[in-house]
Design brief:
Elements lengths: L4 H5 L1 H13 L8 H14 L3 E4 L6 E6 L6 E7 L26 H18 L5 E7 L7 H7 L2 H4 L2 E11 L6 E2 L3 E15 L3 E2 L9 H19 L6 E10 L5 E2 L2 E10 L2 H21 L3 E7 L5 E3 L1 H15 L4 E2 L5 E4 L2 H7 L2 E9 L16 H15 L5
Parallel strand pairs: 3-4, 3-5, 5-16, 6-14, 7-15
Antiparallel strand pairs: 1-2, 2-4, 6-16, 7-11, 7-12, 7-13, 8-10, 9-11
Helix pairs in contact: 2-4, 3-4, 4-11, 7-8, 9-11
Amino acid sequence: MPVLNRIAEFHDDMTAWRRHLHAHPELLFDTHETAAFVVDKLREFGVDEIHEGVGGPGVVAIIRGQGPGQTIGLRADMDALPMEERRDLPHRSQNPGKMHACGHDGHTAMLLGAARYLAETRNFAGAVALIFQPAEEGGGGAGVMVDEGMMDRFDIARVFALHNWPGLAPGKMDMNYGPTMAGADRFEIIVRGQGGHAAFPHDTIDPIAVAAQIVQSLQTIVARNVDPREPAVLSVTKFQAGTAFNIIPDHAELAGTVRIMREDLRQDMHDRLQKIVAAVAEAHGATAEVDYEFGYPVVVNDDAAVDTALVAARDVLGADNATLDHSPSMGAEDFGLMLKARPGAYVFLGAGDIPGLHHPDYDFNDEISPLGASFFARLVETAQPVGR
C-alpha cells in the first residue's frame, strides 16, 4: 500500500498548516497559540473528544474506531527552539529569537493529517489518542503529561512517535530494537580559587588552571572507566572565567553534558565526575561546586512495537524502504519518558538532503508530510485491525 490516497489529497492543506506553525513558533510550555490552532483543526475533523490543558498547554484528542479494543497513542511535539532563523523564507519565523529548527511544526502537521483521515475512515478497532505535546526541547513535557496521569486517564496501551531525519532519503524510514536515543544529563561546575595580579601567580590559587585540569581529567571517564564497546559521551561545552588580561580571577565556570545508552551507567558517570572534580580542586587548594541534573532517560523501543511499526512502514513506503538499520543516536528525546510508562516505538522518517536539525537554515521538508501522516494512520489500522 503506497501513501494513502485520501491523505495525498490534502497534502496542500498539511503544507499550509505546517508553514503557519513555522511562522509562529513558541517555546517550551508557552505553546498556547499552537495548541489553539491544533484544537481548531481537530474540531473541524470531527474527533470524538478533545482534552486541553494536559501537561500545561498539551492536547489529547480521542478518535474511536469500530468495536472494542485498546487505545493506541500517537505523539507529536509542538515546541520550537530559542534561536534565530537565517533563511528568508516566505513562512519564516515572525517571532524573534524563536524558530522551528527541529521539525516539530512538521510532526504536528503530519499528526493532524492522520487525525483527519482516521476521523473520516475509522477503519480500526478500539481508539486512538492523538497526543500534541509541549516542551520537548528541554522542558520534559512528555514527563509532565505522564505524571499528570495521561496514560491511565486515556487508557493508552502503546505509544508511538516519529522524527524527521535529515540525511536519510525521503521515502525511507529507519528504526531499531532497544535503545535508540541516548539518556542525557547536564552539569555545571564552579571552581573557586583566589584571585590576584597576573604578575604574581604564586600569591593566587588560579581557578583557570584548576578548571583546565578538570576538563582534561573528565575525559578519562569515558576513555578509561567505560567499556569501549559501550556508547557514552561526556562533553564540556562551556568554560568561562576572567574579566581582563592581567587579572587572575577568583572563580571559573564549566558546563557540559553526559550521554549514555544504558540507564545503569548513568549513576556511575555522575559519581566519577563528582570525585574527579573534588579531587583535582583539592589537589590545587581550590574548591569546586557541582550541580548535576539527571535529564531525559534513554529512549528504549519495545521489540513487539517495532515489529508493528515496521509492518505499517513497509505497507506505506515499500518493503525495501523501511528498515531496522538505524544506528542509535546520542541525541536525546523526552519521548523516553512516555516509553517508561508504556511500551512503544520511536522511528525516523527520511527528510532528505537538507540542513541538519537545530541548524539556522533548517526547514522541514513538506514533501514527506503525506508519508508521515500515512504511516501514523496505517500504524493504527495495523496495530488494531477491525474484527481482530
